[in-house]
Amino acid sequence: MQDLTPQQIVRRLDEHIVGQAAAKRAVAVALRNRWRWQRLPDDLRTEITPKNIIMIGPTGVGKTEITRRLATLTGAPFVKVEATKYTEVGYVGRDVESMIRDLVEAAIQLIRQQRRSELMPQVEQRVEQRLVELLAAGGETGPADGEAEARRERVRDRLREMLRRGEMEDREVELRVEQRQTPVQMFPNMGMEQMDVGFQNLFEKVMPRQHAQRRMPVREARRVLQDQEFEAQLDKAALADEALRLAERQGIIFLDELDKVCGSEGGKQADVSREGVQRDLLPIVEGTTVQTRYGLISTNHILFIAAGAFHRSRPSDLMPELQGRFPIRVELQDLTRDDFLRILTEPTSALTRQYAELLAVDGVQLEFHPDGLAAIADLAWQVNQSTQNIGARRLHTLLERLLEEASYAAPDSGQKHVAVDAAYVAHHLAEAVKTDDLSKFIL
Ligand SMILES: Nc1ncnc2c1ncn2[C@@H]1O[C@H](COP(=O)(O)OP(=O)(O)OP(=O)(O)O)[C@@H](O)[C@H]1O
Ligand SMILES: [Mg+2]
Questions:
Q1: Is 147 in the same domain as 237?
Q2: Predicted TM-score (pTM) of this structure
Q3: Is 20's C-beta closer than 6 angstroms to any atom of ligand 1?
Q4: 251 lines ligand 1 (CB under 6 A)
Q5: Which has the least CB within 10 A, 173, 302, 421, 437?
Q6: Mean per-residue pLDDT, 137-155
C-alpha cells in the first residue's frame, strides 16, 4: 500500500472528481487510519476496528466514483455490491458472505498480477528455451553420439538467434494445452457463488484435466507457454495466504444502495426481507470469520463504505447495531451548473477528452469552445431540473447525443475539424430541449 497522507489522497481524488470535499476527506482519513493501524503494536491493533462510512447523496454525484478511485489509488482489493441484491428471491443468509469471497478473489487477482511481473524475467527465459526445443523437434533424430549432439546444439543456437530477431513468429509449433472444464457449463442454472465452497473445491479436484495437442504459430505459442510457465512457478499456497492477508487488512467493500434495505415503503413482505438483509450484513460488518476456497478470512478490519440516496429513509432507520458500525456519515452535494462545467473538462479522463481522443484516431480534430461547454453545462442542468435529476450522468447522455452525428460522419465525410461552440450545441441539442422532447434524454 502506498503511504499517502490524507491530503495527498484528497489531491489524487481531485484529479478525477469535482467537488464533494467532505466525502473525499472522510475516505482519505479512513484510509490513512488503516495505515496508522497497521503500524500499531499487536495488542492495540486487535482493539481497534475501522470506522466505516456511509455516503449519503443523490444519484450520479460521485459516490461510486470516489470509492472506485480510492481503491485503485492504493492498490487495495475492492468489490462493489448492491445491498438490494440480497433481497432478491433465492438468496439466503449465507450468500451475503459471497461478497467476502469476491473480495478474496480480487486480492488473488492483484497478487497474481504482481507475481507475474516479478516472475516474468524467469518465465521468459524458460519460454524461450521451450520454444527453441519445440522448433528443433521434428528435426534430425539420430543416435546420441557426440558429433550428432554437437550438431543439434548448433541448430538450437541458430534457432534461438532467429527467435530473438523475431524471424520465427509465424512458424508453427505443436504443444500440449490444457482444456479447462468449468462446472458452470455442467450446471448452467447454477451460479458459482451459490455453490457450496467445499463442493466447488471438490469439483475441481474430481474433474479430469483434459489435454490436447494443438498447432499454432510461435507468436501465439509464446503466450500459452508464458501462462503455463507462470502457473508452474507460482507458489499457490503462498498466493492464497498473502491474498487472504491482503483482503483482511486492506480490503474495501463498497455497499451500494444501503438505503434500499432500510426503507419502510412497500408491503410487509418486503420489510421482512430488507430487515433480513440487515441482519445478515451485521455479523460481516461487525467482524466474523468466513470460509473461502482459499481458507478462512476474518472480516474484522475490512473497510466498508456504504452509499445511498436516503430519500425516503434515514441512516437512523437502520438497525441500531448496524448504525453503530457506520459511525461516519458524509453528505454529497447536488451538482451545480458550475460543477458540470468543471466535470466536462477538469478530470484527467474528462468526457470531452475521451471524445476528442476517440475521434482523433479517425483524424478528426474535435474542439470544444468555452461557449459550447457552457451551453452543454446549462442544458444538462436544465434537463436535470425539469425531468429526472440523474446528476453527472446527464452529461454522458447529452454528449453522446451531441456528438452522435460527428461520430457517425468520421472519417467518411472528410471533415477534419469539428468545432463545438454555442451554435453547434444549439443546433444539435437545443431543438430537442425546446420542443419539450425531453423523453429522449431520459431514456
Ligand atoms: N463530482 C463528480 N466529478 C466528476 N465526475 C462525476 C462526479 N459525480 C459523478 N461523476 C460522473 O458521473 C458518473 C456517475 O457517478 P457515480 O457512479 O459516482 O454516481 P453515484 O453517486 O454512485 O450514483 P448512484 O447513487 O446512482 O450510484 C460517473 O461516470 C462519474 O465519473
Ligand atoms: Mg453508485
A1: yes
A2: 0.82
A3: yes
A4: no
A5: 437
A6: 75
